[in-house]
Each structure stands twice: as structure tokens, then as C-alpha cells.
Amino acid sequence: MLTRRITLGISRNLSRGALINARFASSQSYLDSVANLKKDLKKAMIAKDDLRKTTIRGLLSGIKNKEIDAQGKDLDEFALHDLYSKLITQRKDSIEEFLKNNRSDLVEREESEIEIIKNYLGQLPVASEAEIDAKVSNLLTELKQSNPSLQLKDAFKKVDWKAAPSDWRASASMIKASIVRQFKTKS
Fold first, then answer.
1. Superfamily (CATH) of domain 2-123
2. Residue 174 C-alpha from the chain's centroid
3. Domain residue limits, the chain
4. What gap in Å lies between CA 89 and CA 96, rounded to an integer?
5. Is 130 exposed, middle or buried (0-12, 13-18, 19+ CB in 10 A)?
6. Do residues 59 and 88 make contact, with C-beta atoms less than 8 angstroms apart?
7. Contact (Cβ atoms closer than 8 angstroms) between residue 142 and residue 103
8. Predicted model pTM
9. Name one GO cellular component term.
10. Of all helices (H) and strands (E), which one includes residue 106?
11. For 56-78, what is each residue's pLDDT tens digit?
């Protein structure tokens, strides 16, 4: 029994160390965003703004879960963008369900949470979906001019995936989704 406790204690300490290292390896804008959330949480607690406090705690919880899942990998503003977008989508789905069940009080709360999350989403130094779509559209137009029988896999090969996130200010998943969307409409 004693060895079991010692083993569990060591594994807990190692996982905490990995989590701390994940934070230090993250980008500066990621760290600034998390610090801003914590500062805003404190302000919401002082102002007794329950809705904002609960929403920010949910965001911080999602970020913490993302850090744990990353297991030491670098996290950046694109990971936050994906997380915030996912949370907004979840709330929109909840609104649909609440409308079906005539729960207007919960609909208003979810809409307010969406506005709070969109505020933090807008603060991230990430390109908007329209900006990404415009760049992808230009890229596909150039590629189709040089090769009229362009396939989707060829379009993916032409993108420098190591440099694209920093050059385009977008995550690879956002760029890939835009390429697929634009390719279908241009074909």
C-alpha cells in the first residue's frame, strides 16, 4: 500500500511538470490571452457579474483541458481560436435545443455567453475566415491557371504547411477547411 501511494505521488508531480512546461513552450500571444482571461475573471468576481464569471471560468477550464491533452506540445493562439470557435458552436447548438423546448431564459443566457466568447475571439491575432478564404481563392486561381486539371491533393501539396500558419495568421485546420470549401465551389 505504501509503494502505491509513492508511485501515485510521483506520477502526479510528473504530470504537473509536463503541464508547466507546456505553458512555457506556448506562444506569447497565447500566454497574454490566458493572463487577460484571468485578469477579467478577477474583475468579474469583484463586480459580481455572474454570467461573465461563469463564462470565463468555462473558457479557462477548456484551456486547461487543452493543455492537458497537448501533453507538452506547443499551444498557440490558433489553438485558442479553435477552442473558442468550438465553444461558440456548442452554444449555438444549445440555443437550437432550447428554442425547441421553449426555454427563452436559457436562450438569452447562451446568446450572452456567445457575445462574451466572441469578444475574446476577436482579441486573438488570428485572421478572420473571410481573409483566409480570400487568400485561398487567390492561391487556387493561380494554381488553376498554371494547371487547369488541378486536383484537391495537388492544391494541398502546393501549400507550405510549416510556414502557412505564421504567414497566413491561421491554423492549418482553418486553411485546410477553406481550401476544401473553395475547391468545391470553383470546380
1. Uncharacterised protein YqeY/AIM41, N-terminal domain (1.10.1510.10)
2. 10
3. 2-123, 129-186
4. 11
5. exposed
6. no
7. no
8. 0.73
9. mitochondrion
10. helix 104-123
11. 999 999 999 999 998 878 788 88
